Amino acid sequence: MISCYVIIQVPVHVNDDGFAELSETFTVRLLPYITGGATLGDITECLITILPSDDPQGAFGRYF
Q: Sorting pLDDT into bands at 50, 70 and 90, what band is 45?
C-alpha cells in the first residue's frame, strides 16, 4: 500500500473593518464524502478562533 498525504490550503479572509469585536470562533470539518479510494485520518475537525480586534473592551466600556 502506498501512503500519500495531500495538503490543501483553504484561505479565510478576515475583514478588518475597524469596528471593535470580541473573539469569534468557527469550525472547519472534513466530511466523509470522498471518492477515488481516499480516506480521512483521525482528525477531521478543527476549531478556529479569530482574536478580538480594535480593543473591544474600550468600545463597550466597563461600569463599576
A: very high
Whether pLDDT at 23 is above 60: yes
What is the DSSP annotation of 15-51? Answer: ---S--B--EEEEEE--S---TT----S--EEEEEEP
Amino acid at 2: I
**Does the structure show a pLDDT above 70 at 51?**
yes
Cell numbers for 21: 469585536
The residues pairing with 46 across neighbouring beta strands, listed in sequence order, are 28
How long, in residues, is the chain?
A: 64
Q: pTM of the entire structure?
A: 0.60
Q: Where are the domains of the chain?
A: 1-64
